[in-house]
Amino acid sequence: MNKNSWFEHSILRRALALLSVLVLTVGILPAAALAETKYGFINDDDVRFRKQASSTEVWTMLDTGWVVEIRSEKRSGGEDYYYVVSNIPKHLDRTYYGYINQDYVTLMTAEEVTAWKNKGGNGGEISTGSSEPAVMTDYARPNNASTNYYSFDGSSLTSLGLLSASEAYYVSGSSTINDEAYYIISVNNVNCYVRADAMTMITTGDSAATPGKAPEGHIGIIRLVADGTVNLRSSATMRSDNVVHKVKQGTELPYYKTVQSGNHTWYYCYNAGSEEYGYIIDNFAKVISTVATQPPASTATATPKPGASGTAIGQVKITPEGSTHIRKTTKINSNNVAAKAEQGDILPYYAVSVVNGSRWYYVYHAGKDVFGYVLGSCVDVVGGEANAPTVKPSATPKPNDSTVKGYIVLTAGGVNLRKTASTGAATLGQFDKGDIFPYYSTTVKGSVTWYKAATEEGVGYFHGDFCSPSDASGDPIAPNPGSPAETESFVVTTKDKVYLRKSASTKAGTYGQIKDKGTLIPIVGAKARNNGYDWYRVEYNGNTGYIRSDCVKVLTKEEAEHYQSTGALPTPKPTPTPAPKPTEYIITTVDKVWVRKSPSTKAGTAGQLKEGAVFKFTGTTKVSGVTWYEVPFDGATRYIKGNCVKVMTNNEYNQYLAGLPTPTPAPTPTPEPDPSTLSDLALTRIEKVIVRGSGKASGKQLALVYRAETECKLLGQTNKSDGYTWYYLKVQGTTGWIRGDLIRVLTKTEAAMYEKVGDPDAKPEASYTTLQFGATGEAVTNLQKRLKQLGYLTDAQVTGTYDEATKSAIKKYQGDHEITVDGIAGSITQHSLFGTVETGYYNQNNGSSTTVVLHKPELIDWYKGGIQQIFPRRGIAVLTDVRTGISFKIKRWSGGDHADVEPLTAADTAAMCRIYKVKDAQEINDKNLYQRRPVLITIGSHSYAASMFGMPHNYPAGDTISGNDFYGQFCIHFTNSQLHDGKGVDKPSAKNGYFSHTMAIKEAYETAVEKLNIK
Hints:
This protein is mainly β. The chain is extended and about 110 Å long.
């Protein structure tokens, strides 16, 4: 397929078979047209001829060109309908009354009605006689030389001068102003308004349908850049009937003027190869040179302003720093920019207007080939007659939004092209899966990326969930993670004292806190992902930093404006419950259902079914209005009557499958590990593991190990019984037997890591040298082997040399794993690849945030032992976890029945997280790590046996230390301290046997000396 044919591939879908072009749109007709016209033709295929407005019941479906008589209008269900009278294709001799949506009916002129009646008046194609009808172009000509054209500011019309009666003007649309119909035309590339009854639309047979030969002297040269060929067109619009020639890629053409049409710039060119003039759209052209010349004669003759003959009356100089907008009309808004001028540019002006007290100069910019308005406050009048525009050297237009950034391919069917980047915006058209379009920019709204793309329906936005970046052939490519998207989104803080961090990490430095909940902040870049959170890049008080996603709510631009004006956040719209999807399965709804040999109640039977029988049906048959389901039964196709069954939804069928009995699988034998790799250390896999007096299921119960991951010392003996291997061991002071599948025997490597950091699955330590393009050697080979193992390289690419393939593979891996994409294999990238941590990560303090001298544990009573005086409110102590040996500092906040404490610093919180094997303190909550932990609380020369309950709670009241990355407080219990709300001492329960504070304190007191090597 020609690479630019995506602009024309849906012509059949959009075309109106020469009929839709008889008029531009309903809105372009004079206001009185409806009153004079009683007929209209259908302008699309498969249009519903409804029995009632908004009804789903129809007489039939009508196709393009069918003529109906219009009786009246009606609004129903938010839609406008015509009440019409017509026959239908199957019954030309009958009369039907009904409703048709006005969007699918084009009103007919009196001449068209006469032609239709002369043809026979029975629907079908419209004809103006025996020959083919003349086809309307997108151009109109004034009826006389005294035709005014106007600017419109939304409330009033201002005359801009008279149109040339001999010139054709491009009509881009229509509007009704003060109950009069106006065409919107292009004059000097500016949208203007002219009364519709003062213009005549031009047909293809009219010599004025298209501009004549190009004026002498081109103003620039374009090169065709699209793959394949580009269409040279007779008018500045995408139509199937205006292609005059196909020009090859790379051809350079002179152009003589530009025309703004359909949100595009069109170049009026001469193609020497075919000796033809025509228009080329900007999507497929690149300006490679411009010529300093007079404003194009064909443009100047259009009289830029009232009283002007096309000759400039003076010059103005652009004064503000940077860029100044040249506007299409005398109105300031973002959609009204024709081009930009730079400070110091000197431009000729042709007229001066005063609108709402502001002075505007109508100027010409030769470098951009644009006429437009500049606000008087942005210029100095430098005087002097200027018969020729001043041209800046090398005035090649700068690439802006018309520069193609890349291509997208649609990944779903029926994808909407939206007018703006919003699912609530108007739909410009729908496109099919596999369609390819160039895109010019991206916009991020909330978590959605929108692509601004050019299509045959115009320029609009595609939702990023339904397309993906591709090359020009539609082959998907990975998006460049380094290119920030434009954004129109905001966040509003949902908490007080939210940190603005210098990078996307809870460990990063801060620019301070955003004090108040409800602060609105703009997003200024793409979001990042780290530590399990999204991070939004925002700008606040002159600083650009990151805010964690759980501290904010994302708002669109419109929602932010609403919030600023009302103070109210948008109410989330409830997600509609999706309609159940039918399956190909039926279930009988009554008992004793006959299975028939043919679809008839008189047919022979093949069997009888109970209620609830399920079958996959292969088809349906309707006999005398009764539906029968075809099902396989006893090796043949049989039939079940439709009123005895129902089609199952996916959910119903899944529930049916879940209710079927599951066959009991044969027990999988416990795999036998290599004994030489095993240590004598094991951990319990689950809670409540029974220790028995002998190595079999009938052995006497000696003890119950309540906690998972309890340490067991293997004593060497094993026994096979009941299909299991039993291990003889010592656990919590009891010697006995535990079934092999209930414990995890650690390898020697795992045991060493467990002894070192308290986690047998902790990542090993390693050190790496940075590898980049050009490097060679064994380290590069190991890197490439790992990339091959992960699917980023092939066997042939493992060369021992860090080449382009390796660099690209590293970039892809970095993008997939949220690492800065630079193609260099630094330590962060290599640790991620090989699953390691930096050497020294598990330091001699065993992951602690502080050092401490431990003493033999002491038991101290909460109420009578004096601990509240030893460890008062605002007092600081060192907490040491007995099982891991990790220590960190704590500060007591409050607590009457036990001590409520906080980690003193962020480093202390990080050490606490290593104890719990989590990334941040919030995960202690998220993973419900409620188990009590035996700890020592060291104050001065004393270490007291205690129990830690580490879940963060009582936020924000219990959060008194800012910047410690811990939200709230946690609890420390000593002997006889009680639970919250005076619920008593936390003791082990005979009912559920959970690990209590009492047990944790006991473990700390009895085992700390041995485990922590306290002298």
